[in-house]
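Cross-check.
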Amino acid sequence: MKTGTILAAMVTVSLGGFVIWQSRDFPAEVASAPGPGVYPTMLGWVLIVLGALLFVQTILSKKKEEVVVAFSSKQAIFVYKLMGLAIGYCLLLPLTGFLVTSFMFLAVTSYFLGLRNWLMLIVSPAIAVAFIVLIFGYLFHIPLPSQSIL
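Predicted model, tokenized:
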């Protein structure tokens, strides 16, 4: 399984480089404050460092790892469902807007993770979405995706 870990390390380093490359046009400073390019650049460097550490650790490791991956196991199917939900969220977000899509995503994900109390399935996503809208929409004035169909 060393090959898989080495591949994951190389993908992580590549992803970090890509993030840094994509954020190169964002200003690093705006009005004597950190600009929109600071956080993605820092995140890119963190990915590069962690990927490099994983690569070195894997190369220096002496033990052989035999890992059997069952792509049709119950856990793998659960992950596939959550990935499908995330992809569905991304596809529906421009159509139905942040409020509806995020509420539904959080409610369905909570249900998949085992929450069965219907009151909590309604209240928890509503509070989470309201908190996000309050912080990002009103406090930071970051526009959230609006609906285009409903």
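Strands lie at 29-30, 33-34. Residues 74-112 form the longest helix (39 residues). Passed to J.P. for a second look.
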